[in-house]
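User: For a reading group we're discussing how well predicted structures match intuition. Take Fructosamine kinase. Before you show the prediction, I'll give you the sequence so everyone sees exactly what went in.
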Amino acid sequence: MDATWLAQLPIPKVTAAQPVSGGDINQAYHLTTATEDYFLLVQPNHPQSFYDHEIDGLKLLGQVVNVPQVIASGAIGPDAYLVISYIDVGQGDQFQLGKMVGQLHRTYSPNQQFGYKTAFHSGDFLVRNDWSDNWADFFLQTRLIPLAQRLTQMGRFIPAWQPKFQRATALFKQLIADYDPKPSLLHGDLWAGNYLFDQAGTPYLIDPSVWYGDREFDIALTTVFGGYDQNFYAGYNQVYPLATGYAQRIEFYRLYYLMIHLFLFGNTYQGPVGRILTNLDN
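Assistant: Thanks. Here is the predicted 3D structure of Fructosamine kinase, as structure tokens, for the group to look at:
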């Protein structure tokens, strides 16, 4: 990282900048100064508004759960940046993490509707958040169906999937008719790379993509790539027990998450998407 660029950040003089893992789309650095450490995210060739939704999410989640503190954001030249507090990573109890996520999901939309005040992007896929009081319509019309259409345009949604997909959307409507989800505040990208524990064992959530939806959406994402153990679900259920039938419903949210990965990262994800569609069709 260029020292001249770093000198323009509104923090004390940076004495060291160590590249670290920052997810799939950001450049990320552990910054050291004479007084404290920071975590820096950089998105080259994007305006400072690139981080607006993440900043909004951190501030919103921070009212309920532990998250890094937003220190500064802006743009230096053509590059957007976000500086947040640095968390020295340790180990902790997933039971406590589960309880924290349960508390998060007991925070509901102020207007009692599904959606969010703004749209956001996943890569260059525009994720709409039009407010709705109908969960099935919201999820299908702003998430699953538009994504399937975009993947079809890209040639990544295999034509043989279309009949299965149509039957899956009909099944989803049937299942939701017997279920009454509340519009919970969601982290929105709750794979295992987006939680951590500090040295004291305190759980934190990071890198949110917030909106208000069925809490089972977040739970579904915890099951896609692993990294959560039974203690997490025990802690969650102590605070906010999952409803009967959740195991069948979360398959649709897993499908959406894998379709997003198919969109972002290519045909490696065709196999997992196809398997879920086949399972839902049986």
